[in-house]
Amino acid sequence: MEARELDERFDNGEDVLDLFDLSTLKRPALETQSVSVNLPQWMISALDRESVRLDIDRQSIIKCWIAEHLEKSPVSS
């Protein structure tokens, strides 16, 4: 199938996912790697309070905040 036909099907609202082999899907630069960061207790307590307030886990808050900061950084452009 040509890209033009795929675009046309998608634009017409057809479900085109069945046309792809999702088992081979790769997410470049999104593979995870563990890192260890030592934080003062007051930061951990503040993160835990925020995690309760937002009803998400501490790790998700940290990842979101780092991503937000990096997206605003001129270095990431």
Q: How do the helices and strands line up, and which of them pair or pack?
A:
Blueprint: H1 3-11, H2 41-54, H3 58-72
Helix pairs in contact: 2-3
Q: How many strand elements?
A: 0
If you compute it from the alpha carbons, what radius of gyration comes out, rounded to the nearest whole angstrom?
A: 20 Å
Give the integer mean of the pLDDT values: 91
Major sheet details: none
Helix/strand order: HHH
Tell me what you see in this structure.
- The chain has 77 residues and is an all-alpha fold.
- The protein has a domain at 39-77.
- 49% of the residues lie in helices and 0% in strands.
- It is elongated.
- The two termini are 34 Å apart.
- 0% of the residues are buried.
- The model has no long low-confidence stretch (mean pLDDT 91).
Supply the key terms.
single chain; 77 residues; mainly alpha
Question: Would you kindly provide a brief summary of this structure?
Answer:
With 77 residues, the protein is an all-alpha fold. It is built from three helices and no strands.
